[in-house]
Design a protein that fits this description.
single chain; 6-stranded mixed sheet; 6 strands
């Protein structure tokens, strides 16, 4: 997981997205935006497959299963968000997500995310997201929720 999070931060968020971190670096949110450009997925492919290991085929099948539920128009996509385990519950996740949600709304674009933790669904609903799909992933993958927040 650490390698995957680092990849999203270094090769997606920083070069072609937006990143917000808490002052103490205990929390981070990484977004792609309609104007941020696309990461070079061909270049990232080998590293993604390496990180997925023997689950690479399952990861590809999961991407295929989620694709129909993703926005087709311009949207802010939450690539990843994380809070240091010892700091969870302090509001840091909300704090690093807020600037991206504001920016998406100011631009008139929806925000979109996917989560495979049912416990996260209520957290995101509290931020104004609505579940748009609940997808059982193939190859014994988890149920994943597609969630969207339309601009106010």
């Amino acid at each position: 997981m650490t390698g995957l999070q680092r990849l999203f931060l270094e090769h997606v968020g920083l070069p072609c997205g937006r990143v917000w971190v808490s002052d103490d670096l205990a929390a981070v949110a990484v977004w792609t935006t309609p104007t941020s450009g696309e990461p070079d997925l061909d270049a990232l492919g080998p590293r993604l497959r390496e990180l997925a290991g023997d689950r690479a085929a399952a990861a590809a099948a999961a991407e295929e299963a989620m694709a129909p539920h993703r926005p087709t128009g311009p949207a802010w996509f939450l690539a990843t968000v994380g809070v240091a385990p010892g700091r969870q519950g302090e509001g840091l996740g909300r704090a690093v997500l807020a600037p991206g949600l504001r920016a998406a709304a100011e631009e008139g674009h929806p925000a979109y995310l996917e989560t495979s933790l049912e416990s996260n669904v209520g957290f995101y609903q509290g931020l104004g997201f609505e579940v748009t799909a609940q997808v059982p992933l193939p190859d014994d993958g988890p149920v994943t929720w597609a969630m969207r927040k339309d601009p106010a």
